[in-house]
Amino acid sequence: MSVLVEMFRNLLTMPSTILYPGERVPIPDKFRGRIAVSDEICIGCSKCSLVCSVQCISMVDSPREIRFKDKILLRKKKPAVKLFKCIRCGLCERHCPTGAIYLKNELSDSGTDKEVIAA
Ligand code: SF4
Ligand code: SF4
Prior knowledge:
Elements: H1 2-11, E1 35-37, H2 47-51, E2 57-68, E3 71-81, H3 91-95, E4 101-103
Antiparallel strand pairs: 1-4, 2-3
This protein binds iron/sulfur cluster (2 copies).
The site of one iron/sulfur cluster has 15 residues, from helix 3.
């Protein structure tokens, strides 16, 4: 008898699931999404590469002049992040002195090729 009651109760309630991807779940403010680098403000200090918990950031040659704290510096390298090796721990973002590397507040795709570099 209790099963029938449960069945009728469920018939009258809204579904608990959503029709993804037609319906989207709101993304929380501190969501750790896809990794990204703002090349214009990266000073090439390598801190992100040193703290990365899975060693998915390598510093590659990219010499150019950059402005940092009212000084003009010559940057030698910039980070190249392996997109699908990144576990989105946020350590690089926390240690970057300029905010150049960060986790986007948006959903990202997935992949199996661990050599793909984040754009
Ligand atoms: S968020 Fe990704 S790239 Fe940054 S430290 Fe963590 S694993 Fe490395
Ligand atoms: S920590 Fe920030 S400024 Fe330094 S190399 Fe990484 S992205 Fe560039």
